[in-house]
Input
Amino acid sequence: MTTGEPLIVLESVNKWFGPLHVLQDVNLSIDGGEVVVVIGPSGSGKSTLCRAINRLEPINSGTIIFDGQPLPAEGRGLAKLRSEVGMVFQSFNLFAHKTILENVTLGPIKVRKEKPAAARDRAMSLLERVGIASQARKYPAQLSGGQQQRAAIARALAMQPKAMLFDEPTSALDPEMVGEVLDVMTSLAREGMTMVVVTHEMGFARHAAKRVVFMADGQLVEQAPPDEFFGSPKSDRAKDFLSKILTH
Amino acid sequence: MSVLVDHFDVFASGFWLTFQLCLLSAVGALILGTLGAVMRISPVPPLRWVGTAYVTVFRNCPLTIVFFFAAFGLPSLGSNADFLKIPGLSSIFSRLGIDLPYFRFAIIALSVYTGAFVCEAIRSGINAVSPGQAEAARAIGLTFTQNLRFVVLPQAWKAAIVPLGSVIIAMIKNSALAGFFGLVGDLSNGAQNLTSALGEPIIPVFIGVSIGFLIMTVPLGLLLDRIERRRAVAR
Output
């Protein structure tokens, strides 16, 4: 499935929030087409790691390379890079004053300068794909959480990104809506999208991930294919974490 | 009260001129205020300093002083504010294009002064937009300017519209000062002529002036109430 070529490379990345060392010398390489699930206790730095990849969170030292290029500084170069990396947030962050369709077409029209008619057609087929084409004319507040998150995924896909970042995409959802979002993500993973997914959904990690990365206290403690990680975790930290979440 | 009938033309033309002054100044203040707000939140420190300095100076200076500088300071600097002689506009607002500059000076004074308050109202509106909105806009590759234009400002406007309305109402009332800084024929100047030059009784004349202002401010206030109620329902 993977291309065998690294698409995202983090080298000795460090990040502080004041005195808090949230990313400690993090090294991680993600191949094109690979699906990496990042798990770990809250406050372990997994969201920060995810957000650092498109520089929503600037890092203090180290390098992040995307598609062969180090992340540019704030400005047009960075805007272009971000347009190639889709991002899905925990709180959806759909543009509240725009319809679902306008949410999906804004990037293609304004950033990619696509013709509005062409952008609309593609947006509609994306909305069809995530199963909410009938909601295209509604505003985000009129949709359920699960529908909003699927619209957010469509919005990110509309930019035809080289990779997708998911920052706890199901954590703000009612339990019965988690499945519909995970289904969309699973089908994306099957099609060979490069994905970095921060999540607490162990089921998704088991069946969709190629690799599970376990983080604790700002460090990458352990990484392994899901069967190996869930079957026989090596570090005590991971064993402790898994025993806490899997006993219920 | 017969003065209201006998000199109706003075009140009517005064109202018309004050209305034009308010309309143009409101547009000017909204433009200046929006620019100021964008400067104050921009990632470029010198722009932020300029925006902050503008607000600090004009929000804290008495309006009379601002009018004073516009009406006496600008001419002594050699300016007749000719840049406001905008071809298309001058044909609608005839006072804009004439040689006597006091209508233009009044627009400058009111716009610059009110713009500082508009700036803060819009900035509070920007702060009311959840940070996730701007973050999502950045994540799909919008630049800072596109982010403001397509995502943040349209939502900030909605949050700011009621405080902005109050600022504009205050500006309409403030426009009464213009007649004392060279503007001929607006509501306050017309009233002054009626009382001092023609010896008309003060109280009826000022009732007439008040009616003129109320015709502008009361409907604006009612409109704002309606907008606010509609928004409350939409939530």
Observations:
- Chain B has a mean pLDDT of 91.
